[in-house]
Amino acid sequence: MENLGYYNGNYGPLEEMMVPMNDRASFFGDGVYDATYSRNGIIFTLDEHIDRFYNSAGLLKIEIPHTKEELKAILNDMVKKVDHGENFVYWQATRGTGIRNHAFPKEGKANIWITIKHAQVQDLSRRIKLITMEDTRFLHCNIKTLNLIPSVMAAQKTLEAGCDECVFHRGDRVTECAHSNVHIIKDGVFKTAPTDHYILPGIARAHLIKMCKKNNIPVDETPFTVEELMDADEVIVSSAGSFCLVANEIDGKPVGGKAPEIISVLHRDLLKEFLDETSV
Question: What is the pTM of this model?
Fold first, then answer.
């Protein structure tokens, strides 16, 4: 099977799966999600993604109907049911099913959706183009919710501009991208926004910080501005499938390219970690 779907214990080809109209995702986007990649049937950094998933659910008072170990077992089983060893692994929990009402249902646990589709992590050697856009999202960006309309609109604007990702900012403060974290290198220091309610605490972000510390690259977790972004020695975008993509253009202006030795070290160690942890 190429792509596999799951809904509350029911499996099937992703294209044929159906869910109830009264699932609260249909009306309110009332849920949380997480995602990562698998290789050789091994899901990369699964424990960290599961921890973040349960934290997001807890912040929204969504009751997951499985323990962490049970959900990991379901995910690990699913990646073994598809034809390919390299896949995008996505799962979400919605608050439940019930007649449309803004208030929570009186009873019932979360509905669990899972999708497995063939995909590979991105080529770290390619350079990407970015645009900037005012951050109009709500003040719970640290929760990985299904409410993604601002990110959808930013992704469409990015596509129409012939670029790869959109960098959000609140006033002059850079927050994150439409579906990634963003960081800079300046004068040998890796600088990334703090994990407050303006950004998602990215797993790839945490691994970048780990690799910087491993290689004695100073890390500064404080806010930075659009001006600093444009003047940075390097601009980095990170997510589950793009551990450390480097930008060479923002809003049509050239950026970065001034610290290739640091980029080379980060690419080497991040890729090695992925390959080592997903080897059989």
Answer: 0.94
